[in-house]
Each structure stands twice: as C-alpha cells, then as structure tokens.
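Let us begin with a simple case.
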Amino acid sequence: MPVPSVSHVNWERTRGLAQFTMGTVEIDATELSFSKQLETILTSGTDWQEQLDKIENDQFNTVTHKSLPKGTKVRIRPDGRERDHRPEVSEDVAELLAEQVSEQYPFVPVESLGFDRQLSLLLDRAEEYYRELDCYLVRADTEQIADTLRG
C-alpha cells in the first residue's frame, strides 16, 4: 500500500471537498481515513469539467448542490503544520487518482507528476466545481475563500 507525501494544504482541502461530495454536514469527513475521503471524491461520478461547461452555459445560474444549502462553507486549517502527512492510500485509489487527473487534464503527463501534485490538480478542479454550486472552503481563522491559499 503506497504511503505518499501529502502537503498539509492538500490534506485539509481533501477533507473539505469530501464533505461537499458526501452532501451532508451531519457526518464529519474527519470520521473517514484520508484514503476513504479521497476515494469518496474520486468515485462521485462527477466529470467536473463537463459539469463546469454545463454550468457556464446555464445563463440563469440555477445550478445548486442538491443536498447542501446555498452558501455552505467548510472551514479548513491550511496552516500550522510544517511536515507533510504520510497517509496510507490503496493502490486502487492511487491508480484512480492518476486516471481521473489524466481525464481532467488530457495533455498533462500525469505519470511524471508526484502524488501530491496529482492530488492538487484534482482538488483544483473539484474546488472550482463546488464553488459554482455555492459551496466554499474557507480558512478557519478568517472568512477568506481558501483558493487564495495555493501559490
């Protein structure tokens, strides 16, 4: 079972986006292992780029998350840990991650990228999608939308 290095920012983003994917705040995503959080995101059946294209063409912007109220925010704590996390991730989940990043970014040589970079690309697309559904990751210490944390 691979034990990849995952930056703390991506660790937190994965938790927050898994929360959106589950479609409920009644069950906290922290109850799931990192691998299960990532698997939840990967197996959501969402082709984010296709959905974003549909949303862009919806001139009335009537698309919302079916299960979560408008303006749902999940707080993340991207600061405070200097070392990367080292979660166990099943081979199947690691392969599914690479496969989905390849689908989302067809001209990127995904096999040449490390696990954390692949994860970051996937989370970027998922975060963009959920933002369009009025679901936001925000810093725990402020109301700042979290996408400004990447750099």
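The second case is a distinct protein. As before, the sequence precedes its structure tokens.
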Amino acid sequence: MILFLAMSCITESGFDARFSEEYCRYAQECEVLDLEGFSTLSECERETGFLSEDCEEFDRKQARECLQKVAEMSCAQGMSGTPRACNTVCP
C-alpha cells in the first residue's frame, strides 16, 4: 500500500532515482553491471538516469508503468532494452 501511494505521487526526480535503483538491481541480478560500464551497484545508481534535463511533459502514468515494467524485467527481456512504457515518460 505504501509503495502504491509513493508511486501515485511520483515526481521527475523521484522517477529518475527509482529508475536507477530498479535498473541497476536488474543489471546486478543479471550480472551485466560490467557490460553496462559499471563496476559496482552504487556506481550504477549514482550515474544512471533516464530523463533528459529538458523534459517538459512528464507523464506520471507512464512513469509508474515504466518503473513497474523495469522492476519485473527478466534478464532475457532486458536484452531488448528498456520497456516501451519508458520511452513515453517524457515524449
């Protein structure tokens, strides 16, 4: 329930932080941190971001869907890149 409440009020900076956490956790679990250019999980979380600085139309609904899809992403799915929902967070 708390996760749902936090997700419903997501901001651009909150999204970027959560995306980094979820993406880097995926990379660590799938043992591809080094392939992504990171030597540690904390380095990945520090340096990974998704939104560009000129995002003018942040879509909270798509942001929530993106985070959910990244959290559920399997190693095989990750080989295809980020989920489609992530591409429409900031059109």
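The helical segments are 2-8, 12-29, 41-47, 60-72, 75-78. The longest helix spans residues 12-29.
Keep these points in mind for the review questions at the end of the chapter.
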